[in-house]
Request: fold
Amino acid sequence: MKKIVTLLFAMLCCVSVFAKDPESKTFLVIFKSKELKESKTTIREIESQFSSFFTTKHYSGNSELALTIEIPNCDFDKCFLGEFLINLQDGYKIQLQHLAFRLFDLTENKNLYQSYLSMYEEKLTAKKKAAKTSRS
Reply:
């Protein structure tokens, strides 16, 4: 029995040491249609350059053009993604950050939102506790 407990304890300690795989990151790239026309490219051409490596989806319509890029298990940030070279029709290459209007890391923003939400909830509970103690 003593050996089994020791073995289980050792296994629990070892499992907690293993590193987790980094989660996938999702980036949102917003383009202005005027700038794409000046560069003689389209959002579909830009998406095709990323879609062979990553999961992508483009959005177009009444608002600005947008492209989501999901990169699995990475340490990318929006600055690194902005340095990717995009092939234009006339043979030139340009960095994504020079062609895009804005780049957003949706995963980072989600984590930031969660931290702000938890801070807000802590303040609310502190106010409720203070109100209850003042009533008593």
